[in-house]
Design goal:
By secondary structure, the protein is an all-alpha fold. The chain has a two-stranded parallel sheet with strand order 1-2. Helix 6 packs antiparallel against helix 7 and helix 7 runs parallel beside helix 9. It is elongated and about 75 Å long.
């Protein structure tokens, strides 16, 4: 699918961009001095969320704010010693409890976009809480408190899943937390009782059901794209290019130069921003259509193609690329969660605790973490005698079936 240079946005009738373009053409067709052409609004006014104090999302906000306040000096730290990890866990007890208390409650992410280069509210706190939840799993593992380890793993997985209801960067953070929580518990699966294994499996299944559909993430990302266009248009009107030149450096200078030469009271200006918004719409529409397909079907679909010489291509490169990377992260995380849920339930049903370590090592659970083509029917080259057990064979057959149908 190739998009023409001045693509008409799919939602321009809804947000008024088409009306602005038509009005501009009519005014230019008149005689005498043309009045100043209007500037379209690409997004509604945004501001801080007004979450109800008792809502689940308000608990997320309060947890993030508390973590940022109590552990402020650790927010930007990237290297943590065991002692500092324990210190952060102690400081974040209250915000962690807010997150833990959401178990079994419905959750709706209340998304508010941020302009380019602006700090996204609550994200530093959520990032630190995600790290802390993983350290909490590791601490429980060291203490051999396996009930707590399972409980903390499910809480971290649920927290990560709820974060995927934001935009693509929120989803990436959420999937990362889920993956790290899974990695933290994986080496101790062999030490869990049948009851603990069943609890972990059922909890992971509940998290998978709770996870927002990808189209919600993509619609929020589209809102972020349109806010970037609105911000760019506002800065064009003010002639303020400093932040773009500072943040994006030499790569963006040709695009800035083009806009500087674009006359404000011209139809070219309207077409430029209208077409930029149209590209955001087209990318989102394509991604939402792909989200309804499984991984095998998506691989055969062609992404939308745009004119390589379009003058706004550099803005698109910096502001519109996030949907391109969402599916790989999402598919990989969900596949690994499903595999872990299957493994733990099968082991719990069989009660073969002695074979758990070999099964987890040799099964498709490990294959999923290593293989780049995990969505295809997997093959395993395994030389462990334990893998010839009924439990392992059943697990692999089940994984085959799920991967093939998914």
């Amino acid at each position: 699918m190739r998009i023409p240079c001045y693509h008409k946005p799919m939602n321009q009738a809804k947000d008024g961009r088409g009306v602005v373009a038509i009005a501009a053409l009519l005014m230019l067709a008149g005689c005498g001095t043309a009045p100043e052409l209007p500037y379209p609004n690409f997004v509604q006014a945004t501001g801080p969320t007004n979450s109800e104090s008792g809502s689940s999302f308000s608990s997320f906000e309060r947890a993030a704010s508390a973590a940022e306040l109590k552990a402020k000096k650790y927010l930007t730290r990237t290297n943590f010693t065991p002692g500092k990890k324990e210190a952060v866990i102690a400081l974040c007890q209250q915000p962690l409890q807010l997150i833990d208390n959401l178990a079994g409650k419905e959750f709706q992410f209340e998304y508010v976009p941020s302009a380019p280069f602006e700090s996204k509210k609550f994200r530093p706190g959520w990032r630190l809480l995600g790290q802390t939840m993983v350290w909490r799993i590791e601490e429980a593992k060291r203490k051999e408190d396996f009930d707590a380890m399972v409980r903390f793993t499910l809480s971290a997985s649920r927290f990560g899943a709820d974060l995927t209801g934001g935009d693509c960067s929120d989803a990436t953070l959420g999937f990362g937390i889920i993956d790290e929580a899974r990695n933290a518990i994986l080496s101790s699966v062999s030490r869990l009782s049948a009851k603990q294994l069943s609890t972990l499996s059922a909890g992971l299944e509940a998290v998978l059901k709770r996870m927002p559909a990808p189209h919600q993430t993509l619609e929020n990302e589209r809102t972020s794209m349109l806010l970037a266009i609105q911000t760019l248009q506002d800065d064009y009107r003010k002639g303020d290019w400093k932040k773009y030149e500072t943040e994006l450096r030499n790569e963006i200078l040709p695009a800035v130069k083009f806009l500087k030469a674009l006359k404000p009271n011209s139809n070219d200006r309207i077409e430029y921003f209208d077409s930029l918004a149209g590209e955001a719409d087209a990318i989102t529409a394509s991604a939402i259509a792909l989200s309804k397909l499984n991984a095998r079907q998506r691989s055969a679909k062609e992404a939308p193609q745009f004119d390589k010489d379009r003058p706004w291509r550099r803005w698109s490169k910096h502001f519109f690329q996030a949907p391109k990377y969402l599916f790989a992260v999402r598919d990989r995380t969900i596949a690994r969660m499903r595999l872990l849920a299957i493994e733990t339930q099968l082991i719990a049903l069989r009660g073969e605790r002695a074979a758990v370590s070999a099964v987890c090592t040799c099964s498709a659970l490990l294959l999923a973490s290593r293989c780049q083509c995990w969505w295809a029917a997997p093959t395993v080259d395994c030389h462990s005698s334990a893998c010839r057990s009924t439990s392992c064979s059943l697990a692999l057959i089940t994984v085959w079936a799920i991967c093939w149908m998914w």
